[in-house]
Structure formats: structure tokens, C-alpha cells
EAL domain-containing protein (Ventrimonas faecis), 656 residues
Amino acid sequence: MKRNKSILHLCEVILGVLMLILILNLYLIKLLVDPDISYTPMYRNLCLTLALLVFCMVLALIQRELLARLLNNAYRDVTGIHNKKSLEKKLQELNDRATTFGVGVMMFDLNNLKHVNDTYGHEKGDEFIQAFAYCLTRILDDHSFLARYGGDEFIIIQENTSPEELKHMDLQLSTLVQEYNTRTSLPLSYAVGFEASYRNHYFMMDDLINAADKNMYQDKFYKKNSRTATEQQKQSSQVIPTVSSEYLAEKIRLIQSQASGKLQIALISTDIENFHYINDKYGYPLGNEILNIVYEEMTASSLSLFTARFFSDVFISIADVSKQTEDALREQIQTMNQKICDRIRDTYHISFFRTNSGIYMIPNEEITPETMISCANVARRIAKKLISHTCLYSPEIDRQEKMQAEILHSFHPALENKEFEIYFQPKIRTTNQAVSSAEVLVRWIRDGKMLWSPDIYIPLFEQNGFVVNLDYYVYEQAFQWLRSYSGKLPEDFRISLNVSPVHFEQPQTFIQKIQNLIDSYGINPSFLTFEITESTYVNNPLAVNQVIRSLQNRNIQISMDDFGSGYSSLNTLKDLLFDEVKIDRMFLGDTISESGHIVLEEIFHMLKRMKKSIVCEGVETQEVADFLKQEGCDEIQGFLYYRPMCRVDFEKLMGC
């Protein structure tokens, strides 16, 4: 398009030069040849021709300008920025590219437009929109594309960018809006969400927009709640203020220096279980009164040297525990918590009220106050899972925390060094006892020795998202193995691969990654089964079904893992899209009771009528194996037959 514009401008210049030459020629003819030539018909005709050419050129320029403006306006709205039609064109252009690396999306939702329109009229509403659009244009650069795609919704597509640059643009906009609000009677407020696509964090355009949109609505929800809380807090009674971590650290140092070995002191961190629910159900004023009561009771404790509200519903006490054994200290903290709960229940009739406390004994050696606070908070979080709701930070907890920190710190170097190795646990077909498939597992091996158990590090990786990279690593290792040995495996052999719940937050990305790996390694999809846990299906059925349908269309089998682990229901079975159901070991045990026989028989009967394959895992006794064969189980997996084995041993087993 730029090339066409350049050609058009060149033609205009050439036409102008030719006309100038013609005018000069006429002038020279008149001046040099015959001063009276202007009275001849030829000269008059030349002048008329020149006038006609000038008129045509002016008319063409006017038409060109009008057409340019019409085309430009077709892609812009009343604010002067790109409209929805122009946005669709831009998105199509980006979708046609090979990758979206370096592309970022910022989405904005302008608040209170309806209120402005209803109260002050649509003309004022247009000014309101234009003011926000003006602020947006001031954060743009040469790589920016700004469009308005709804009444109060805007989008910036930023190329050659990064998350840090998008954050900087967000900060710029916030500053501009704040400055504008000091000069207007109709202040602007907005919600924003942004996301960028880069290596190891790749999005297709649709997913990129969806992620930014999701972040925008989270921001909108947060700001709305913050405004509501602020408004309600203004109407409520005074609540004990929070203290900064710096202030709290200084207070700990001061009391430590005063104690100087004479006192044994401890930090006690206490919170209110599900305090946000109390605020939502009963309102912020009552929530503030409850915070004040908790503070009063903790301050009144005979142990307390200093008590402060640290943040939200979390309180920190510095306590004198010199004359307390650990058991007596736990008991006294439980008594204090019970007193708080009784007072709240008696005053406000809130039957579900509960507090949790974590205790950290401050040692004599030099430890930073920040570490002490962290340890007390760790103990408080553990207390939530205990019957007593009180936990004393111990050497064992410290060991667990350090181990978890080491695991997380070691993950990326371990992945680069290929310390994660795939293992196989075979499954046998009940009809002929032959190995018919195998589940691919992962083990962390360093210097020939197995490190932590997967039961320790997999939940950690699921919490912080590392499991996504680990899963793709395992899939890639398994596909490499399949490419090498698929020709030596039985025709109907399959390997099973586990799918972590985190993938279903972005199902389309997961589907595309799997397809890319299949294409990259030239794998026949009929060798693959993906195992998805029943709990994942129950918590996110729409995303799971989307993945199931897409993978089944590629001839990949899907298995419901851990069936019977606590979520099973007839409703789950009713809408089952899975090809296979894998009965959890918790459902079986070492022996099966008479009632268990009946339940399993009926489940098997239903699954068979639904034409689902049945696999049972965790089989360790011949008694259970015989029962499963008799009832028509298709495959059995468990220590009775095979334990997980390294790839070399599995290759020997399969004769590869």
C-alpha cells in the first residue's frame, strides 16, 4: 500500500512538471516569437487546453483526498482511532504470520460510561470517551496499534515488546489519567489487562487476547472490590491499622535486645479462617469489629509483649514463653484461640468462626526478623490443616521447607541437564497376560541415584506452573523413544502419558503443542493415550471435553485416571467422553470386600455397556487380579506384575 502511494505521488509530481513546462513554452512563444500571438486561434486553443488540464488535475486531487478520507474513516471511529473493522484486519494480518513472538496485547475497559451518558447526556459521554482515548494515544509508539472495539472497550496491540514494556505503558497511562483527573469534574477510571507472547510463554493471537481479557476482568473485579471496601470502611467503626514489615522487624530487634538472653521469646502468627467470607456475608463494618476483638484478645494474653495487625486478617504477637514447655505453649495458644472464637460466636452468632496460629521459637543465634516472620507464617498455614489449628515450627518443618526450596531452585538446571528420565510401568492384557501398553512416568536421577519422590516434587511443580515444562519434556522424551522403537512394538501397543490439570487453563495451547510434537517426531497418534484425572474433569469439564474431542479427532485415546479416588458419581459417568476408565488403587485395596465386589461389578457392567475400556492400577495381590479378570477388566497395572522400570529394562522386556 505504501508503494502504491509513492507511485501516485510520483505521478502527481510528473504531471505538475509537465504542466509547468507547457506554461513556460507558451510564455516563451509569446515573448520570443510573436508578442501578438495571443490573438491567434492556435494560442488560444493551447491556453484552453492548459486550463482544462489544470482543472482536471485539481479535480483529481480533490477526489483523491476525499477517497483517502473515506477509506481512512471506514477504519476509524468518533475518537479518531481504529475501529472494530480495522482491528479485525490487523488480527488477520497477525494470524497469518509464522509466529507471534514479541506481540503484546493490552485491553482496557472504561468505567462509568453508562452513568455519564444517563446523567449528563451522550455528548458528554463522547467527550468522556475521547478524553480516555487521548490518554491512550500518548503512551503509543511506532510499534503500537490502538483500536476501540466496543462502547467503552479499547485494545492496544504492541509489536516488538515484552511484559516489562507493557507494565511501563500501564504505569504511563496511570500517571496520565491521574494528572487528567486533577483537572476535571468527571474523573476517568478503567480496568486493564495485558499479556505478551515470547519464548517459553507462547500464545496464538486468540489465546493472547483471551489471556489479556481475563487479566482485565480480574483487574476490574479487584478494583471494584477495593472501591466497595473503601466506601464501606469509611462508614464503619475504626479498625486497628496494619503495620509495615519494616516496623515489625524493628520491633522484633528491639525486644530481642531488651530480652538479652533473659527471656525466651516467640513469634505467634494468627489469622481468621475464611475472613473474606465474613466480609462478603456480613459486611465490612462487622468485619472490622471482629478484627478489633481479635486484636484485643491477643493483646490481653499473658504471653503478649507486643501485638500488631500485620496485614488483612493476620496478626503477629511477640510473646514471652520463658516458662512454657512446647506442649504447654500450644495448649495456651489453643485456649486463647478458643476464647476468641467463643466471644465472636456469642456476640455475632457466627458458628463457623475459627482462627489458626503458627508459633516460631526465636533461637539465640542470629536470624533475621524477616526469616522469623516467614517461619511463623509457614507454621500458620500448616495449622489450617490440623485439628488443633495450632502449629509449632519444628526442625522437621524447617527441613521440609528447605527441601522444597532446593527442589524449586534446582528444577531449571535439572531440566537443562536432562536429569529427568522417563520410566515405564507395563500393563498386561487380562486375556493373555501379555504386555499391551505402558504408562510413562518421570524420575529425577542425578549421578545415577534417584532424588526426591515424584509425590514430593510433582505437587510443588503443579503449584507454581513448572509442571507444564516438565510435562512437555516428558512428552518429547517419550516421542523420541517411540520414533526409535515403534517398528518393534506390537501393532496395537500404546503408551500412556499423564496430563497435569494446569494445561486446561489454556486448552488450545496444549492441543497445538501436542500436534507440533507429533509432527516434529513423526509419531503415529494411534500409539498414544493421554491420562486425565477424574478430579480435573470434575473441576473443569468444558476445557477437558474440548481437549478430548480435539485429540480423539487425531486418533489419540483418552483415559480417565484415578476413577474412584473420591469424586466419582453417576453424573460423571453419564456424560463420559473418555475412551478408557482407569480404576484407582484406593478403590481396590489388597482385598475386596463383599460390598466392594458388588460396586465394582456394577461399575464394570455400566462401563462395558458404554463400550469403555477398563484398566485397574495398583494391583498387588493375586486375589484382586483374579477377581478383575473374572469381571472383564481389560488391562491390569501394578506391582503384582511389574514395577516402574528404566527405559533400558523396558526395551529388554519388549525385545526392542
Residues 1-5, 65-75 have pLDDT under 50 and may be disordered. The CA atoms of residues 4 and 10 lie 10 Å apart.
